[in-house]
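Q: Fold this one first, please.
A: Sequence and structure below.
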Amino acid sequence: MSSGTPTESTMPPDAPEVEAKAKSCDRQVERPEEGTGKTECLEPMSKRQRKKLLKQKQWEEQKDLRRQKRIEKRQKRKLERQSKSDTSNEGNDRKRMRRKVVPSTLRLIVDCSFDDLMVLKLLAHGKAFCGGLSEGLCKNKLCCIQDVKKLHKQIQRCYAENRKAFHPVQFYLTSHGGQLKSNMNENDKGWVNWKDIQIRTEHYSELIKKEDLVYLTSDSPDVLSELDERKAYVIGGLVDHNHHKGITYRKAVEQGIGHAQLPLGNFVKMNSRKVLAVNHVFEIILAYLEKRDWKEAFFSVLPQRKGAVPLGEAQHALSEKEGEDNDTDSN
């Protein structure tokens, strides 16, 4: 062959096609075929495909973490089931304990006949009239409405404490009606389903013999030394803020029924008056029926705000103070 032969005559006939394919592969992704040394040209991946592959990769990488979370979740459910089982057993224990309760024959009455003293009326000229008190004496125009609510809460507490007491008493609410009943209907509709309690519209004198009644009032000159479980003890259902001093004692005298005060002064020194809330009197009696010790009963119930201290300790502290004062004077 002469050197002047054109180079085009030495190229295979399909050269233009191969060259076009190569140029196309420059714009594509090369991937080796499995089992061969050849490469396969693929179209570039879209953003959606790349995200999908990334998620798949993350899913594979987090397989162990997911397995560990499943194990922890199963263990948590197991502990919760055990906890519920323990709580159920405690409930059964309480039920068994409840069967050992010995109810007392003592009757304890909350006298709700003071409803008219806890009525707030607004007169035509806008001044408050509160149970016979002028606006000047009734400092807060809403005080009586609040008193009814407080009495309701105290009765709720009495009911709850009696239900779980070791020696529950025979609980009565008498003269039930008026604002108290309206407040209970509005804020505690479940009261109609209360158990182990007699809620009566009648006055206590219509339900219990006169000779069995003892009105508990701090103004009585008689002091209880022991509870007679054949008696029916009456607690005045009145939150009066000292507006009606001596009213329960006068009521007992007028009706010719027995009256007495708890032996608080024999065991306790207090910063305030000896007038206790309805639920405190109720709880002290429940505590005494269980402990048979007045001192223990008082200090297991009285709130700290009353500043109650054992009588002996109070006298000892007073003697020490007087001694210090005398030493100061002598110097």
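Q: Good. Now the second chain.
A: Here it is, same layout.
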Amino acid sequence: MEAAVALAHAPPAPALRRSLALNPTPAVRPDPKPWQGVVLSARRQSNAVRCEPSRHPQARLRAAAAAQPGGADAAAPGRRKRLAVFVSGGGSNFRAIHEAALGGAVHGDVVALVTDKPGCGGAEYARSNGIPVLVFPKSKSAPEGISVAQLLDTLRGYSVDFVLLAGYLKLIPAELIQEYPKSILNIHPSLLPAFGGKGFYGSKVHTAVIASGARYSGPTVHFVDEHYDTGKTLAQRVVPVFADDTPELLAARILHEEHQVYVEAVAALCEDRIVWREDGVPLIKSRINPDVYL
């Protein structure tokens, strides 16, 4: 935690200064959009997807691919990617991605919603839009949940290309990471590696940022590994922290940026515009000029 606080107090790095110069954030507190405060519903859904392990997952995968537009050629480059989104709460980032996909900004489709809280706002939104809801993991509060093996088998059945975490609070099992190498993204509401790790989520992050005296914060999109918030950074947005900020005010400004940067990162993922540097750092190619990295 001391290292995180020290980093938060440090002056912006050259790359950060360039980002501020190119993408200055006005020192105005924008009003949060009306739909950002998604109301959580306590209603439980009786038809949450229940899964039985397939004895022939590859055959099921081929059948699913053949059923897509274009038949077996759907696996060819340029096809729309198939996305599974994991949420635990209101799901505003999930909604932003889904709306971007419907509007054409993301060349992909959300084919499944995974949640550990079947009554959360994200799950309600999925049901209202005809997206299957998978309850994972199984627990006392969610006895209808599925196992890791059933989850993997179901994602294979849906021919999922990429997994997107959007406010999912559980640690992702190693089996899922092994199944989807370099294919799982998460968004965190701070400039990682500062204010990340187990226990840093939601308002706890913003409270810690303000208490540290940090002058800047913002969302980070990163790839997921076996630990909390330690995967390679893909994209960030810088948001100023004002002297009179509250966790709620800071959260609203950061959430506004989250919806934009996450959609942009997912769009790049679906368009195969992410390349990996020799040292293992992911970079996003510009859609307009592939020789430029964002």
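Q: Anything worth noting on the second one?
A: The chain has nine helices and eleven strands.
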